[in-house]
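Subject: Rab5

B.,
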Amino acid sequence: RNKNINAKLVLLGDVGAGKSSLVLRFVKGQFVDFQESTIGAAFFSQTLAVNDATIKFEIWDTAGQERYHSLAPMYYRGAAAAVVVYDTTNQASFACAKKWVTELQEQGNTNIVMALAGNKSDLLDSRKVTAEEAQVYAQENGLFFMETSAKTAQNVNEIFHEIAKRLPRA
Ligand code: GTP
Ligand code: MG
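Prediction pasted inline below.
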């Protein structure tokens, strides 16, 4: 028995963390070195088959620039899943990710599936946030954590696949 599930998914995180790059990798299998900063938000959709179900992700890629922060609730309201993205080479972006998690915990869907993505894992020499500290934070806050690279594609399909597996089946 195959179920078709539509799932609204939102990406949140600091400017330049790699939200759009992760979506571009997931949806189109592409990466660009000079991805333009998102204005407002961008919409994508992508379908994934997991076990007994076909999940159609309706993806809102939000803008990390502070002036767009007030728009975010429009995109996370009613979302079944959220990917909170930080840049592993930037401590401030990890702090920003924690703020997004807190906002989602306070104002998001009660049953939202939350993933924490430590992106740019390919930049080994510039790492500022350890996988251990992010894993501890994620565990304490009920998220699952993966380090990703939109550039090399490491864990990009995997993180969306893991979300799909965790979505409640109607
Ligand atoms: P806003 O739209 O401004 O909020 O930023 P964003 O989170 O969408 O970041 P974006 O995807 O635009 O990426 C910012 C920059 O980081 C771009 O120049 C990307 O090429 C680069 N980038 C994104 N992901 C990776 C990655 O995994 N590895 C490396 N090396 N660079 C990346
Ligand atoms: Mg963007």
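The two ends are 13 Å apart (CA to CA).

T.
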